[in-house]
Amino acid sequence: MEHPELPPHLLFGTATAAYQIEGGVHEGGRGPSIWDTYSRTPGRVARGESGDVACDHYHRYPEDIGLLADLGVDLYRFSVAWPRVQPTGAGTPNPEGLDFYDRLVDTVLAAGIEPALTLYHWDLPQALEDTGGWRVRDTAHRFAEYARIVADRLGDRVGRWITLNEPFCTAFVGHAVGRHAPGTREGTPALAAAHHLLLAHGLAVGELRAAGAGDVGITLNPDHLVPATGSAADLAAVERARTLHNRVWLDPLFTGAYPDNEKEVWGDLADHSYRRDGDLDVIGRPLDFVGVNYYRPIKLRDAPHTEPDPAARTAVDIGTEQVAYEGVRHTTMGWPVVPETFTEMLVDLDRRYPGLPPIYITENGSAEEDRPDEDGRVRDTDRISYLHDHLTALGAAIDAGVDVRGYFVWSLLDNFEWAYGYDRRFGLVRVDYDALTRHPKDSYHWYRGLLDAHRARRGADRD
């Protein structure tokens, strides 16, 4: 398939996350995380799988960085495992953990690739969860301490820093839906977790600035929400969902206030006793960029609350129901493939938040069947089509005036896909989970061709 042409300034990369690829959970002084606990709880993860070994990136990272170098990316987004740096989430850092990320960053740089470091991709040290986790304010201060430790060690070589990845998933999928660690179904405590995550972000921004750590941002996953019908009820349902999914993060970060319809969305759950004067000033500290993860749109309609008693509701029980997207292809995640909504989401984001900092698409990709043929080749044409069409949609958003600076495919490797275990494959590179061997798929070679052509245009533009 031909390659879409994107503006020469756009940087390209791939992304991964520590718990999904590293393994080595009992090595190098690493402490347990909430995902170690969650994955060992019967019934939580498909087939009882865990990230204990994952892709064994902890031992095989030179090979994986070699794949990145062969691919020809500008950037590599990875995350640091907090319990590898601070096994209990507080106190003296673990030198073996910092040494690992030292080696990783040096290997990335030696390959001619710029690192983009995510401080938190969902692996909270279990010791902090035992004392309240994100529900309590102290965890935000512990996160700031951890951010400073990592910045003091790596800030001289890492130029892009992401504080949090998808706090929506941590606060609401983890604390209200229960499908991610810590796996609880809560109301006000989940809303408190959302606030403390934002506070942690703001405190960490202050520490990263003080350490001179380079460009600083946060990665969000704003959803493109579509009403099932044009009825007033469905339109109102979408507005409630917009607050849950998007505004509760974007408004404090970029307008200095929480959404004005919180009471309508959450009722008495939104008591906000955990918020303090001055918190919004910390949360809204200026950023150099915002990361955006995007995979699919969501179609919603108005529906009764799952729990009739308002005091017993979870934070996601807001009177909406997801409905099927008909007439389109779906990935193996069950997600509808509607590339034009990528353009619509970015343009809408740009219009709703004037003065938004530059955007990096920090994740975009698809899980597919990916069955190797008799020669071991993975002809993942659906993934290639997905990437082609979403990059074309990204180009349309840039043409419409959205300031996008970079794009990362999720993911370099097949990996541990959270509650799905190893059943969903997002990688450009197939991982044999028994032998731990790597096999580039057709999409890897397609993406490499795109990057070759893009570099040629970039060089011509400079000439």
TrEMBL record:
The reaction(s) catalysed by this protein are: Hydrolysis of terminal, non-reducing beta-D-glucosyl residues with release of beta-D-glucose
One GO molecular-function annotation for this sequence?
beta-glucosidase activity
Q: Which InterPro entries match?
A: GH, Glyco_hydro_1, Glyco_hydro_1_beta-glucosidase
The main enzyme category here is hydrolase
SUPFAM superfamilies attached to this UniProt entry: (Trans)glycosidases
Checking Pfam families in the record gives: Glyco_hydro_1
- Which terms under GO biological process does the entry name? cellulose catabolic process
- Catalytic residue positions: 166, 363
Spell out the GO cellular component terms annotated for this protein, sorted alphabetically and separated by semicolons. cytosol
Per the UniProt record, which EC number(s) apply here? 3.2.1.21
Residues engaged in binding substrate: 20, 121, 165, 295, 410, 417-418
Keywords of the record, alphabetical order, are: Carbohydrate metabolism, Cellulose degradation, Glycosidase, Hydrolase, Polysaccharide degradation
Q: Could you tell me which PANTHER family the record lists for this protein?
A: GLYCOSYL HYDROLASE (PTHR10353), LP05116P (PTHR10353:SF36)
Xref: NCBIfam families: BGL (TIGR03356)
Instruction: Name the family the entry cites.
Output: Belongs to the glycosyl hydrolase 1 family.
What is this protein's name?
A: Beta-glucosidase
**Organism of origin:** Nocardiopsis flavescens
